[in-house]
Batch of 2 targets.
Target 1
Amino acid sequence: MPALPEFFEVVRRQRACRTFRPDGVADDLVEQVLEAATFAPSAENRQPWEFVVVRDAGVRARIGELTRQAWRGGGRAYAESRLSPQLLADVDRGAEGEVSAAPVLVVVCVDARRTHETTIPASIFPAVQNLLLAANAVGLGAALTTLPTAFALELGELLSLPEHVRPLAVVPIGYPAHALGPPRREPVSDHAHRDRYGSRW
Amino acid sequence: MPALPEFFEVVRRQRACRTFRPDGVADDLVEQVLEAATFAPSAENRQPWEFVVVRDAGVRARIGELTRQAWRGGGRAYAESRLSPQLLADVDRGAEGEVSAAPVLVVVCVDARRTHETTIPASIFPAVQNLLLAANAVGLGAALTTLPTAFALELGELLSLPEHVRPLAVVPIGYPAHALGPPRREPVSDHAHRDRYGSRW
């Protein structure tokens, strides 16, 4: 990897990583990745994000239990008929334990006092995306997961979140256990329209 | 700007641009920016995004009216007590007309048939963020706006959106009318926690 990765190269090689080597991730790398997250836009530039960086094995294991519970309690049934067998197997291994086995779990929360309810997603997920891209840029693997946030109350209790701080995503970070291939994406022309929906781009 | 902008440089200089030169933006640049958007992650890799690229002056003017209506009908009153006078003036000019005067408005929608209701924000706003970053990377200005989506029905009618396709953001794209300074952000340490909320990073 070059010292200064090129922007579009990072964008084009982003893949969800759900299986990690046990090696730890240095604090300064975690901080570099979090700093990138804080440069995302937010409604009124309110920066309502809070990042709980979990390294504690017990806390990670408990987040893993909540993930499994959400997966077995509905996530899997919903996904089963929709995913390719290969992707389903990958997500299944992740939800059953490999994601929470990442050395670092970043629980991304919103401080709901800082922003209007309607602008929460637009103020948090861009930061999550910066976090994911930055992790990729420095050679780490990461993934955007939301399954454990189905148990927001339990997660809040586990992480001592005040009532106004709500978890929206859990991002596992670590060194990928194996090389990730290129992402599979449909062409722009399948998703772009000119002036009106259905008008060919 | 270098031909191949460095990833972290693009991340660190991202700023909302709300005032644009009238110069048009070539189709291939728009496509490069949209392609970057399609490399974002989405739940189950369902890629539920649809991009309506609006250049038509009449349609842009109508989106401008909806933006003004949302701004005057509540957005401004909410923002007034919360924003610095400088930011308020900037947003005010944008909402009153300068944003919709951008040569290109990308209306980012979700195809709700493609994804579960709960995963819509996590499947759309990362793509919006890629779009914004990519615009910055190629020297364009852009901003994440959600005001006009308060009138989703009117916007849907204007853009011939089917019922299952809902607008979530409107991103103006064009060449910045003036240089944008560096973004203002709070330090990571104000937003990061170790293992539990409130435990110093």
Target 2
Amino acid sequence: MKVKRIGMLTSGGDCQALNAAMRGVVKTLAHSGQKVEIYGFIDGYKGLIYGDFRMLTGSDFSGILTKGGTILGSSRTPFKTITEPDENGLDKVDAMKQNYYKLRLDCLVVLGGNGSHKTANLLSEEGLNIVTLPKTIDNDLWGTDMTFGFQSAVDIATAAIDCIHTTAASHGRVFIVEVMGHKVGWLTLNAGMAGGADIILLPEIPYDIDKVVDKIEEREKAGSKFTIIAVAEGAISKEKAAMSKKDRKKADEKSKYPSVSYEIADQILEKTGREVRVTVPGHTQRGGSPCPYDRVFATRLGAEAGELILKNEYGFMVGYRNREIVKVPLDEVAGKLKYLDPDATIIKEAKLTGICFGD
Amino acid sequence: MKVKRIGMLTSGGDCQALNAAMRGVVKTLAHSGQKVEIYGFIDGYKGLIYGDFRMLTGSDFSGILTKGGTILGSSRTPFKTITEPDENGLDKVDAMKQNYYKLRLDCLVVLGGNGSHKTANLLSEEGLNIVTLPKTIDNDLWGTDMTFGFQSAVDIATAAIDCIHTTAASHGRVFIVEVMGHKVGWLTLNAGMAGGADIILLPEIPYDIDKVVDKIEEREKAGSKFTIIAVAEGAISKEKAAMSKKDRKKADEKSKYPSVSYEIADQILEKTGREVRVTVPGHTQRGGSPCPYDRVFATRLGAEAGELILKNEYGFMVGYRNREIVKVPLDEVAGKLKYLDPDATIIKEAKLTGICFGD
Amino acid sequence: MKVKRIGMLTSGGDCQALNAAMRGVVKTLAHSGQKVEIYGFIDGYKGLIYGDFRMLTGSDFSGILTKGGTILGSSRTPFKTITEPDENGLDKVDAMKQNYYKLRLDCLVVLGGNGSHKTANLLSEEGLNIVTLPKTIDNDLWGTDMTFGFQSAVDIATAAIDCIHTTAASHGRVFIVEVMGHKVGWLTLNAGMAGGADIILLPEIPYDIDKVVDKIEEREKAGSKFTIIAVAEGAISKEKAAMSKKDRKKADEKSKYPSVSYEIADQILEKTGREVRVTVPGHTQRGGSPCPYDRVFATRLGAEAGELILKNEYGFMVGYRNREIVKVPLDEVAGKLKYLDPDATIIKEAKLTGICFGD
Amino acid sequence: MKVKRIGMLTSGGDCQALNAAMRGVVKTLAHSGQKVEIYGFIDGYKGLIYGDFRMLTGSDFSGILTKGGTILGSSRTPFKTITEPDENGLDKVDAMKQNYYKLRLDCLVVLGGNGSHKTANLLSEEGLNIVTLPKTIDNDLWGTDMTFGFQSAVDIATAAIDCIHTTAASHGRVFIVEVMGHKVGWLTLNAGMAGGADIILLPEIPYDIDKVVDKIEEREKAGSKFTIIAVAEGAISKEKAAMSKKDRKKADEKSKYPSVSYEIADQILEKTGREVRVTVPGHTQRGGSPCPYDRVFATRLGAEAGELILKNEYGFMVGYRNREIVKVPLDEVAGKLKYLDPDATIIKEAKLTGICFGD
């Protein structure tokens, strides 16, 4: 039997269940009886560019189902810079292709998010055999209803809101918890609803600060001394949303606030005299052991990716749609973001229960 | 505006997110501006039969999003006995109708599992306005892809397997973790996969003990000294599955084992000389704070139930299908179980990664 | 039997196990058969000053063992301002005494930290019957080896470091986790050791930034691409520690950094070219359900406080020393901080294992 | 510099923080600059007897601070059988000595509980250089106030009671949670108090079943429909405690119950007509990641053990007394159990709050 030579890399910001997904791929290959050699590239595409890899065996993937992070290391290599030569004039795309061929790889498995999928698609178009897996806490990848990392991040952000809840209630205070998500609001929406936030501000639904203030005062009148606000990193005011991209960038650069949450806090103080505390769980949201949901989900995706490899079907991301595992052509995925629809049912339901989105 | 008079009860074994779901209903009604009176029946249908209730206000539902159990209490009132008179000759169905009319209820919200839905459907057929919500850790309700309680139970059962994993590995032992589920295997399958179980035995896939033993020995040969087996309460051997229902019952009565796990442990001991430890997380699986997934999910279902009430649409369970909230006619739900298909994709994927189901 | 009239208040920043401690007091009184009336003052000393209270019964304390925050609410009323008249010219100390006598209280139970103990001692000196319980996540109260809230906060801060650990390792980065503690380092030290931090910077051990940089580079040479630094809010450089208090204050005011962590991050960047990420779990550290250790500990202290009340012994904080519950005269506690000794055994042990304190 | 040759083994039932403790030892040796060779014996004393070991390096101990179980494996080798020849006539004590000398070890580090300390003391008396660390979830080792594993086990058992609490309250039921501890009650006492158990039954305080029943009925009269009972595996009735050891053994053998909890459940049913549910978290209590308390504690003990080795001080267990790390001569530790004193302050306090011990 011919040995299959399989490259593997994890790219972009790390998240939970990367190891679980890789374990799913490798267990499937091992269990099939197919002989394989696994070339694990170190620190994402960088490893592929510079030929930095180590050979992995089954035992490397044993016991990592519950382990956070990635045993391969990861790094961000923005798509924009991928197509530019490095500081020594090296053509990176060319280098990746050369290393792929030099190692006589049969395929390359890429675990990544949005940017990583653009590069994966490029490599696929350049003729490499690529299979990808949708990794991101943001759940913003096109072509799949769900990404692994997302539910684990929801759990961590919710735990933060839970902690803030007891202290906010005890002190009768307004608290902002800033949740990850520069462009999309899935994570903030879900953590906000799970944590019982009263106000949720998302990139997809520009907010009117007066609506936010109204909600706080309405709660106060009804006897609730405290208010919890879940704010996505990329939450945006109606004023700023109306600006041109250029003006917005200028405004951001001029801003004295480390993030939008602090600006909102200041505005609430100004308009109501209430001091607002800001908490930023930050990078904790992408760390730690994956939750059971993500472990199962990543294992399933990994198994399907393993099967595609066994069948020599390449050029796909393994995704999840309408409760079915599907293979999505890479060129459909690359370059698109899956935004939260402001008219989505879940938003309607959140509003039914009285949650304010500032719109 | 006419006040809406709404009865509410939680029936059957309790589970996580019952309170979250009721909060979703009540918050939606309150936020709509509709005036309501909430009659909370104590301990499930028993409260409705004997007119045991208390009036609830908005503040009863404040702060309970994260609280396990049910603020109304619950009890099991099997469908079979519902249609029989009680020890004082009281006709229970008649009593429920009388209490409903006496309190001039506009509708009754029932949170329950399988048995409870049969009774809910009966009451609906008798002319009462019923809305139900799908509650069970077993995820075995017909008409909905998901029930609340399920994911929280997966988390708890997985945590148990995680703990067992380290001790099994340290001692090189075979361990059985018995997971809840007499008739269906959703919970065991998901907890087993999330916990990295090597063997998973389910009610829907009768096992051959020799296949189980083979897997243990195959692992040993490959250098793995320990094996984790996730066994559903209702796991069944091929021999027993082939019996008539009557013979099976007889066999169960004669069995000296407290549950099937202990029988399997004994058989492994006999066939391999290996002592097997059994751990039974038991009722812990339905207790404690709901996980974030269940909190969001139950809130959404509750909101939709609230909307149905506002629109006077009755006779439905609020369910979830293909990622959409749907209303399912009660007579479609009642009396059917949603089994796990042995040919389901998730089973295929689990097998791809080498998990043994004993078939 | 004469009814005992007992006032109770929680003062200062909230923390875990406040409810558990109050439950311990009230359960002990109830179980003794002594008839009591509980006057719960709202939002700390403020409630006592302005006569804002509500009567509490046994059922208010049922089910709150595991509940974070405080059912009485809390607020910070600094000792300095306590002795000053309020904006309407009200003498606050006088007002507290008057309310105490007007309600004919037999005693006042105060759950508080450092500042709160100064006020408690003052009231005691003014003739009120006071019993206090040591509440703070900082574990900096004089006269007791342990305070409740501390271990729960250690758990939360450690969980944050655990999450950061996987992401730091995956990306080969230097990460700072800023842990609460402006004046003392108990929390940072314990969370840092539990989270496997490589460098721990504390208020009691001024750091030399070059020692910090050396450690990072030493780790790199030894093959560890990442470094975790646990920094207390009140960590201080050797330069600043050498300043007069006045100069230090001036330097703080001029600083462009939101906290010392960001300054350290910048210095590391300058000296090594390495980008450093800062994570601030912030207020989450004082919220959420108390850990089992704190529940037991707070219950024990509460029980002993209840017994003191039954015996009419006042003027004490119930503390814990050398594994025994002790009563400590209030004037011994007030105004002193329990610092971490830089020569403590635990510091020596941490250093033995290679942890760098920057000294 | 002479290389130090250090043997290491983990013996008896595994528990949390074994890896953390070994990491503490090895980090201390590495950081001291002392050259060392670590011989890790596989599966406890068995590895030493049969010469089964592997060489360990610093990297084996990296990243294991948070990892449950033991990287060396463990097994129970009862003291009684240690002094008997094996099935091939091998003198085990002699074999251990020979392997120690053959490998030219400078010392042996033993992590173990009660039985393991008897063997360690024997080896010490035979002239080997021994340092031990107190490992057990039972906290029953003589000579130390605390053992690692204990607090982690308290956390897990408490989490189980927390889950049961919500379901017990929802169904108005009596629930027994059986906590580990055949001979001592530390774990059950602490988990019971932390979980809010109403009744706690311990090996050291024989119970009167009528007192248990009285408490249940007293609670019912006071309006509490449910009762939580924490029962140690070794809980014992007054009748049985009064028996001779021989009679007791006979009674145990005749018993139809898998454990005392089931017997108590039956007795409550008989005397009150109430069905009682039993939950047994079992082996989960010794598994999973150590809690922060145990990680810090085990690291400290490990560091001190490392320092003893550097100073060539042998024949000691590193323990913890009155908040100080101490070295305890092995012959003081061996063969003694640290029981819970029925008159201990913590028991008094538990009783003050109304907890019933059945005495």
